[in-house]
Design goal:
Layout (H helix, E strand, L loop, with lengths): L2 E6 L3 H12 L4 E8 L11 E4 L6 H10 L4 E5 L5 E3 L3 H12 L3 E10 L2 E5 L18 E5 H10 L8 H10 L5 E11 L19 H18 L21 E7 L6 H9 L7 E7 L6 H11 L3 E4 L8 H9 L7 E4 L5 E2 L4 H12 L3 E9 L5 E7 L9 H4 L10 E4 H7 L8 H12 L2 E12 L11 H28 L1
Parallel strand pairs: 1-2, 1-4, 2-3, 6-9, 10-11, 10-13, 11-12, 15-18
Antiparallel strand pairs: 4-8, 5-9, 6-7, 6-8, 13-17, 14-18, 15-16, 15-17
Length: about 475
């Protein structure tokens, strides 16, 4: 069995090195250079396929048309590829044994001359992120690829490759090979903290519209799409001592907790509110700082939970189920501050104006000294009332600050984790209820060396991504079941 190989090409040096590596592999058949530049014709023995970009539907269709072997390899990086010994044979073997539509593998990455292990994660039903990392080698069964391409009716400039892998997954699951089979070169020069917000960057709006369309079509085909029909919320069902409670879970944030508390007490509202701080057994002086504020202002409820096994979500449960929690529970992280004295009023007003069970605002990224850092405002303007609850399954977060109608939050409950718990709530709420949006900047989200969003290694990143994909998988299953019942 042979493999047709398609490689994206933008410089002759990279193309020669990659072609040499492929030709050394016995299963490699015809090599096609995907390029918009005529120089590709200078590589002897290769065939040039002129394309506008790797990611368009037109390119995906051309790959399907030119593929005439059992397997089709697409190399997605315009950098040098080095295959490991018998890498292609191993990938074909696993594809045959597992009956996969596509296989992908762990690999090595060379960055700044340093070679490191780069494990990837299993692709689940809920792995709908368009930036899911498969590595740079995608090996498709050609029959599955051609069937999938035939199903794509839209003409995408940016979502062709994404739509292809979604379409393939509807027929045969992608299979992850937990073996290091090749080496790729990392050429991303993006600064730390920027990459995770690419999908909300305004300059990427055209891309995101296409990705949303492709994902929405996929959800319709698998029975997980939800129409924009929401349950009404009755805010008069229960009585509370106050209209709102700001919830701050905290552990060892002596440098920032005082700023957070002060930003709550500066709020000007036409209703009664309080602040519930869940101190998760701090050891650095945080507890004393909280006590100093509670001694001066009775609106601060200081909780130290009995359990020492609570994550952020568990601390939220402790605060929300406290008898002094108000009708609306409003988030503020211990690292951050509200942007003005009208934030709380805007959030509560939004619940009534939009008849929603959850409200999500917008925030500004800053450094520790509250100076703006890229990409600046995170407003999740990709959200629409008609399709936001479906697109939520594709994007990696819903925005902040978040607020909830307390009776429903008490019913749903917060996952006892310290990552993804807010995203899980957003999906669960949006299954039945409208999520209200505020596009004004409501708080300043500080990035600093010691906070929870500081740089993390690939093992932790993979664990976080696996968990969010699992949340999406559960949500897809729940939505499909709900649609079947209806």
């Amino acid at each position: 069995m042979a493999i047709n190989c398609f490689i994206i090409t933008n410089n002759i040096r990279q193309a020669k090195a990659t072609v040499q590596s492929l030709r050394a592999a016995e299963p490699a058949g015809d090599i096609f250079l995907l390029s918009d530049d005529a120089f590709a014709d200078n590589l002897e023995g290769c065939k040039t396929v002129k394309v506008d970009s790797l990611h368009s539907t037109a390119t995906v269709r051309k790959i399907a048309e030119h593929s005439n072997t059992d397997y089709t390899l697409i190399y997605t990086k315009p950098t040098e590829l080095n295959l490991g010994m018998f890498a292609l044979e191993r990938m074909m073997q696993i594809a045959e044994d597992s009956d996969a539509g596509m296989v992908y593998a762990d690999h090595y990455t060379i960055k700044d001359g340093v070679k490191t292990n780069t494990p990837v994660i299993d692709c689940q039903k809920g792995s709908l992120r368009d930036d899911f990392d498969f590595g740079s080698i995608l090996l498709y069964k050609s029959a599955a690829l051609k069937t999938a391409v035939a199903e794509i009716t839209a003409d995408y400039k940016h979502a062709g490759l994404y739509s292809l892998r979604l379409s393939v997954s509807r027929h045969a699951e992608p299979v992850h090979i937990n073996e290091y089979l090749y080496t790729e070169t990392e050429n991303t020069l993006q600064k730390s903290g920027e990459k995770q917000f690419d999908y909300v960057d305004p300059k990427n709006r055209e891309v995101q519209i296409e990705m949303e369309a492709a994902c929405t079509e996929h959800l319709k085909r698998i029975g997980a799409y939800l129409k924009p029909e929401f349950k009404s919320v009755d805010f008069s069902g229960e009585t509370f001592s106050g209209e709102a409670s700001v919830i701050i879970p905290v552990r060892n944030r002596v440098k920032t907790i005082g700023d957070a508390i002060r930003s709550v007490f500066m709020q000007k509202t036409n209703f009664k509110f309080n602040l519930i701080v869940i101190d998760n057994h701090s050891t650095d002086g945080t507890t004393a700082v909280i006590d100093s504020f509670s001694a001066a202002d009775s609106r601060l409820v200081h909780i130290i939970p009995k359990s020492k096994e609570l994550g952020i979500g568990g601390c939220w449960n402790a605060g929300v189920h406290h008898h002094e929690c108000g009708k609306f529970a409003v988030q503020l992280d211990s690292d951050d501050v509200y942007s003005g004295n009208d934030t709380l009023q805007k959030i509560v007003d939004a619940f009534y104006a939009q008849n929603c069970a959850m409200v999500v605002g917008s925030y500004m990224l800053t450094d520790f000294d509250m100076k703006i850092i890229p990409p600046g405002i995170i407003d999740h303007s990709e959200w629409t009332p008609e399709n936001g609850h479906n697109n939520a399954l594709r994007i990696n977060g819903l925005g902040a600050p978040r607020a909830f109608y307390t009776p429903l939050l008490r019913k749903i409950k917060v996952p006892n984790t310290s990552y993804g718990e807010d995203y899980a709530l957003g999906l669960a709420f949006s299954r039945h209820y409208r999520i209200g949006r505020i596009y004004d900047v409501l708080y300043l989200c500080r990035r600093w060396e010691g906070n929870s969003d500081a740089a993390i290694d690939i093992v932790k990143t993979n664990a976080n991504n696996t968990y969010k994909d699992r949340i999406r998988t559960w949500e897809i299953e729940a939505r499909r079941a709900m649609n079947e019942e209806n």
